[in-house]
Design goal:
Number of domains: 5
Distance between the termini: 52 Å
Number of helices: 24
Structural class: alpha+beta
CATH class of the largest domain: Alpha Beta
Strand order of the largest sheet: 2-13-10-3-9
CATH architecture of the largest domain: 2-Layer Sandwich
Shape: globular
Bound molecules: 2-(butylsulfanyl)adenosine
Largest sheet: 5 strands, mixed
C-alpha cells in the first residue's frame, strides 16, 4: 500500500514536534505544552503509524513503548574502554590531585569542570548519522550488554540527535538514574503487586535497565544525564569538556544543569561544599562530585593510570553513618569456607537502605573494636559497599554486654577451623565440600546469573536440596526430576517443571560461563573470559602448567596455582566429567592453543609506561602478549624491558635504578615489526 503524501508529511511533522517537546521537557527542563497535549500528539502519531505500517521509523517517538522481550542480552565490546574514576574521600587527596596535574603540565591554575556524580549506572549510547542505534551497559568496562531496546524507552534519551552538525558516528556516555520519588513509587507498586523491593534508586535503575522485557523498562521512571564521549568518527569535536557538554545539550541530550566551570582547587572544594548542602534538596541521588580537567588536549597529555584517567577525580561525599544496637554476633561460612563474623543489628536506615547486618571482617577486627553483644555501635554504609561497624560507643555499653568467643569448629559441619593469611587472620572451615554450608554457597554460585544462569533455582530451594541430600555436587542438579522437585517445600508442580526446563536450557552454555561457574578460587568472570580467549578449550586449560597459565593477561602466580591445583583434584575432574555426561556443553572457540613457549617473547616480562603516540596502551599490551610476553604493571628485578613513551612516570626511574633495559617508542616499534606481523 502506498502511503499518501499527506500522511507522510503529518507523521514527519508530529515526530519533529514530539522530539522538540521532549527536548524542552528533559534537556531544558522547561516544557511548552501540557502532558495531555503531548499525549494527544503521540496518540495521533501512533494511529497514523498503525494505519500505515511503512511510516514507522526506528527513531519514531512511538518506539518508546518497549519492544518484544528478549531471551538474553547480546554482548557489546567497547571499542573505547569505559573506565572508572579514582576516588578521593578527603580534601587533602583533592589538593594532591590538583598539585600533581599542575606539576605534570606545568600550569599555575587548572580549569576544571565540576559535575555532580549521579548515582545510577553508566550507559553508552551509539548514534550513527544522528540515529540511536545501540545502548549498552558498562559491564566490566571492556564488554557490556546490549540494552538498546530498553534504552529506547527512556524519554530523556533522544532517538535522533537534534540539528545536523554531528559526527557520522558518535558514542555518548552518561548515567541512567531514577529520582527518589520515582523509586518510592516503584517500590510501592512492586509491593502491592507482591513483587520484590529495590534497596535504593541505583539498584532500581540498574534492575530496570537490565530487564529482558523492554515493556517493563518502559514503565520505570528512568532518566539520563550525559557527561562524556566514547568512540567518535568523522567530525569536529569541541576543545573542552565544558564546550562538549554544551554541544551535547545542543544535540538534545540531557546534561546535568548543576555542572560548573571552576578555577583551581579552592573553587573545586567550594563547589563540593555547596553540593553537600544542596544534596538533600535534589530530586535524584548523587554520591559525590567529579572534577575533570576542562581542556581536552591537556586531558590527553595527562593520560591514564591503570584503569582511571589522571585528569579526573571522584570526590565522594562522606560515608553515611548511624548508631544502632548489636543484637548478636554470628559467623557465616562462605563458598570457599572462609568464616566471616557478622553483627546482627537492630535495623537502621543508613546510606539510603535499611541495614540489619554488618560485616566484622575477621577475628582481629572484633578485638580491635572490642565489640560485645548488647553494644551500641556506629555503622557506616558508603556507596554500594557492605555495611561496617565503625566503632563501639563505650559509654552506652550495658553491664550485661557479652564478649564473643570465636569458634574453633565450623558451626555448620563441625570441622576444624584453620587459620591462614598474613597473620593467621583468615579463618577457614576445613570441611571443603563435606561442609553443607560450603556446598550450598557453591551451588548458589554455580546457578547464578553470570554463571550457569539457572532461572528459578533460588537460595531456598538450594538449601533444601542440600539438606535433604538430594544434591551432593553441582552435577547432581542435572538429574533432578519434576517429581522430586515437586516434593520440596513451596515448589508447585508448575514451578518444578519450569525449573527442570531451566536446568535443561542452562546445559547449552559458553566456556567462560562454565569456567566461572566452577568456582575456582579467585577466578572471576573476567579471568574466566581471559582464560577462554587464550586457550579456547577446556582441555587446554586443564592441561596448562602453572607457568603457562601466568602468561594469560592478569593471571599472577597465586591465581595460576589455584587453577592448576583445582584441575589436579580428582573429585573436580570427576564432577566435570559427570557434568559433560549429563549434557552440559559449549561451543569451543576453535582457538588452537598457542604453544607459548615457542613465541619470540615468551618468558619475557615487559612493563609499559608513558604515552605512546603510535597506538593506545591496550593495543601495545595485546601485541606484546600475542608475542608471548607477560606485561606487568610495575617494574621489579624480574622485568626484562621497560618500554617508555612520552612523559613517563616513576616506572622509568625505577627501571634506571634497577638497571632494567629501556626501549623508547621507536625501538619498541622496530621490535614489533621485527618479531612478526599483527
Ligand atoms: S566520568 C573516564 N562523570 O561514576 C571517565 N562519571 O566512578 C569516566 N559517574 O562509571 C566517568 N557521574 O558511572 C563521570 N559526571 C560524571 C559521572 C560519572 C556519575 C559514574 C559513572 C562511572 C563512575 C566512576
Amino acid at each position: 500500500m502506498t502511503v499518501p503524501i499527506r500522511a507522510q508529511q503529518r507523521a514527519a511533522d508530529l515526530r519533529a514536534q514530539l522530539n522538540q517537546h521532549n527536548y524542552h521537557y528533559y534537556v531544558l527542563d522547561d516544557p511548552i505544552i501540557s502532558d495531555a497535549e503531548y499525549d494527544r500528539l503521540l496518540r495521533e502519531l501512533q494511529e497514523l503509524e498503525s494505519e500505515y505500517i511503512e511510516l514507522v521509523t526506528a527513531d519514531s517517538p512511538t518506539q518508546r513503548v518497549g519492544a518484544e522481550p528478549l531471551l538474553s542480552f547480546e554482548e557489546v565490546k567497547h571499542n573505547v574502554p569505559m573506565l572508572s574514576l579514582s576516588n578521593a574521600f578527603e580534601e587533602n587527596e583533592v589538593i594532591t590531585f590538583d598539585r600533581r596535574i599542575r606539576e605534570r603540565v606545568d600550569v599555575d591554575v587548572v580549569e576544571y569542570v565540576a559535575e555532580p556524580k549521579v548515582d545510577g549506572l553508566a550507559i553508552s549510547l551509539l548514534y550513527e548519522r544522528g540515529v540511536l542505534v545501540r545502548g549498552a551497559t558498562r559491564g566490566d568496562g571492556m564488554t557490556g550488554e546490549d540494552v538498546t531496546q530498553n534504552v529506547k524507552t527512556i524519554r530523556s534519551i533522544p532517538l535522533r540527535l537534534l540539528g545536523k552538525q554531528y559526527p557520522r558516528l558518535i558514542e555518548v556516555r552518561g548515567e541512567v538514574f531514577m529520582t527518589h520519588k520515582g523509586f518510592l513509587a516503584l517500590n510501592k507498586r512492586q509491593s502491592s503487586a507482591g513483587l520484590k523491593q529495590f534497596v535504593n534508586p541505583r539498584n532500581a535503575a540498574a534492575g530496570s535497565l537490565r530487564q529482558l522485557d523492554p515493556r517493563l523498562t518502559a514503565q520505570r521512571p528512568l532518566q539520563m544525564f550525559c557527561y562524556a564521549l566514547g568512540e567518535v568518527d568523522d567530525g569536529d569535536m569541541p576543545e573542552s569538556q565544558y564546550a562538549l557538554l554544551q554541544q551535547l545539550r545542543g544535540w538534545g541530550l540531557a546534561v546535568s544543569p548543576l555542572v560548573e566551570l571552576v578555577e583551581g582547587v579552592e573553587q573545586c572544594l567550594a563547589y563540593y561544599h555547596g553540593m553537600v548542602e544542596k544534596r538533600q534538596s535534589l530530586t535524584y541521588p548523587i554520591d559525590g562530585i567529579v572534577y575533570k580537567v576542562n581542556d581536552l588536549s591537556l586531558q590527553q597529555s595527562l593520560g591514564f593510570v591503570s584503569r582511571a584517567p589522571r585528569w579526573a577525580l571522584a570526590h565522594k561525599f562522606p560515608a553515611q553513618e548511624e548508631t544502632t544496637l548489636v543484637k548478636a554476633i554470628e559467623v557465616q561460612v562462605g563458598r570457599t569456607g572462609a568464616i566471616t563474623p557478622v553483627a546482627r543489628l537492630e535495623p537502621v536506615f543508613v546510606g539510603g537502605v535499611t541495614v540489619s547486618n554488618a560485616t566484622l571482617h575477621n577475628r582481629a577486627e572484633i578485638e580491635r573494636l572490642d565489640l560485645r553483644v548488647g553494644d551500641t555501635v556506629v555503622v557506616r554504609r558508603a556507596g554500594d559497599v557492605i555495611p561496617e561497624v565503625v566503632k563501639v560507643i563505650g559509654k552506652r555499653r550495658p553491664r550485661a554486654a557479652k564478649g564473643f568467643q570465636f569458634p574453633t569448629r565450623c558451626p555448620v559441619c563441625h570441622s576444624e577451623i584453620v587459620y591462614e593469611g598474613g597473620e593467621g587472620i583468615i579463618a577457614r572451615c576445613s570441611g571443603g565440600l563435606y561442609c553443607s554450608a560450603q556446598r550450598k554457597e557453591h551451588l548458589k554460585h554455580f546457578a547464578s546469573r553470570k554463571a550457569m544462569d539457572i532461572d528459578g533455582l533460588g537460595d531456598k530451594i538450594i538449601d533444601q536440596l542440600v539438606e535433604t541430600g538430594m544434591v551432593q555436587d553441582i552435577a547432581d542438579l542435572y538429574s533432578l526430576t519434576v517429581a522430586q522437585l515437586a516434593g520440596l517445600d513451596r515448589l508447585a508442580e508448575k514451578s518444578a517443571q519450569n525449573l527442570v526446563a531451566a536446568l535443561e536450557r542452562s546445559k547449552q552454555t559458553t566456556l567462560h560461563r562454565f569456567l566461572f561457574a566452577l568456582g575456582i578460587s579467585q577466578v572471576g568472570e573476567t579471568t574466566a573470559r581471559q582464560l577462554t580467549d587464550h586457550y579456547g578449550s577446556l582441555e587446554s586449560i586443564m592441561n596448562a602448567t602453572e607457568n603457562d597459565l601466568q602468561s594469560v593477561t592478569d593471571i599472577g602466580p597465586i591465581v595460576a596455582t589455584n587453577i592448576y591445583t583445582f584441575f589436579r583434584q580428582s573429585h573436580n575432574k570427576q564432577v566435570i566429567r559427570k557434568l559433560r555426561r549429563r549434557g552440559v556443553m559449549w561451543p569451543e572457540t576453535g582457538i588452537i592453543k598457542k604453544d607459548v613457549s615457542k613465541l619470540p617473547l615468551s618468558g619475557k616480562t615487559i612493563v609499559l609506561t608513558g604515552i605512546l603516540s603510535a597506538m593506545p596502551r591496550n593495543e601495545a599490551k595485546a601485541r606484546l602478549q600475542d608475542l608471548g610476553a607477560k606485561v606487568a604493571g610495575s617494574v621489579s628485578s624480574k622485568t626484562d624491558y621497560v618500554i617508555v613513551g612520552a612523559e613517563p612516570g616513576s616506572k622509568a626511574i625505577k627501571a634506571a635504578q634497577l638497571g632494567v633495559e629501556v626501549l623508547d617508542e621507536t625501538q619498541f616499534l622496530k621490535l614489533l615489526s621485527k618479531l612478526g606481523p599483527r
